[in-house]
Amino acid sequence: MSETVPEHPYPDSTAPGGKPAPHELLAPVAGLLGTWDGRGQGTYPTLAEDFSYAQEVTFSHDGRPFLRYEARAWLLDADGAPLRPSARESGWWRVQPGGRVEALITQPTGVAEIAVGEAAGGTVELASHEVALTPTAKDVEATRRHYTWDGEGTLDFVHHLAAVGQPLQQHLTARLRRRP
Ligand code: HEM
């Protein structure tokens, strides 16, 4: 006889004041909890043109000292209409004492990043510690990610990339708003 389990007993929460309460180690990143969306600009010297994109990002937790991270982007045309799906990634941000962050982030392009850094005063700075690539992935050597939030619903994001023989430089910059 099989028993059904109608509801997960430990759902993820996206609200700092929700249940379960965020683990105390999440305090330096609690301002990220929630779903954010907005627009950004992308560039890289190997690309014929710069591009505009939109993105949706969610940070959630289940009461333990890590964030679940999920991001989906799509390209926009000159009028801001959707052109096609673009980058996706998901992962886990393990928060250690003192606001140290160890992030594991994977992408469907065959890239798996382990990034480490610090969270403090409404910012997180992450630099890749190791990048692993599937056999057919593009050659990504290093990344840097910088997040800044202001407590009033704005999250700014800058992403630097060293890939396909190019030195570390800006690939993305975006401004997101917290979804109500
Ligand atoms: C919002 C997130 C992102 C967006 C919208 C985005 C968008 C793009 C676009 C439009 C291109 C040009 C090729 C194409 O049309 O697909 C590209 C190239 C590339 N992106 Fe991103 N990207 C994002 C995040 C990332 C991340 C997180 C990484 C690496 C960790 C990355 C690494 C690359 C690489 C290696 C290339 C290829 C460059 C080349 O071969 O010339 N991107 N990206």
TrEMBL record:
InterPro entries: Calycin (IPR012674), Nb(III)_bact/plant (IPR022939), Nitrobindin (IPR045165), THAP4-like_heme-bd (IPR014878). Transmembrane segments: none annotated. Its cofactor is heme b. It is an enzyme of class 5 (isomerase). Keywords: Heme, Iron, Isomerase, Metal-binding. Heme b binds at residues 46, 138, 171. The keyword Isomerase applies. Binds 1 heme b group per subunit, that coordinates a highly solvent-exposed Fe(III) atom. Residues 1-10 have a biased composition (Basic and acidic residues). The keyword Ribosomal protein does not apply. Residues 26-178 form the THAP4-like heme-binding domain. It catalyses: peroxynitrite = nitrate. Its EC number is 5.99.-.-. Pathway: Nitrogen metabolism. Heme-binding protein able to scavenge peroxynitrite and to protect free L-tyrosine against peroxynitrite-mediated nitration, by acting as a peroxynitrite isomerase that converts peroxynitrite to nitrate. Therefore, this protein likely plays a role in peroxynitrite sensing and in the detoxification of reactive nitrogen and oxygen species (RNS and ROS, respectively). Is able to bind nitric oxide (NO) in vitro, but may act as a sensor of peroxynitrite levels in vivo. Forms a 10-stranded antiparallel beta-barrel structure able to accommodate a hydrophobic ligand in its interior. In fact, this fold hosts the heme group, which is located in a wide surface cleft. This is Peroxynitrite isomerase.
